[in-house]
Amino acid sequence: MGMYLILALVALLILGVSCLTAYLRTAARRARRRQAVAERLNAVVARAEQEARERKATAKASAALTAVLPAIKQDDQAPRSVA
Fold first, then answer.
1. Lowest CB count within 10 Å: 10, 16, 48, 78, which one?
2. Which backbone phi and psi does 71 adopt, to 5 degrees?
3. pLDDT at residue 1, rounded to an integer
4. Which phi and psi (to 5°) does residue 80 adopt?
């Protein structure tokens, strides 16, 4: 009777260790996936920020150029005649 009890306990111990191992592998796989997703997301955010900075710089340069060379208003002037 004592031998069967020891055998059952050893079987439960082996089953518990194998379940724990399977859980830890799954957790590690999920962690790697999350890490990969986070890296891709960080890359997308960095690219979007860079594009926003470029658009802002372009708009600023355009505004500066408009301040130096104001646009010609067509409505205020009569058409010129060339002889």
1. 78
2. -70, 145
3. 78
4. -85, 140
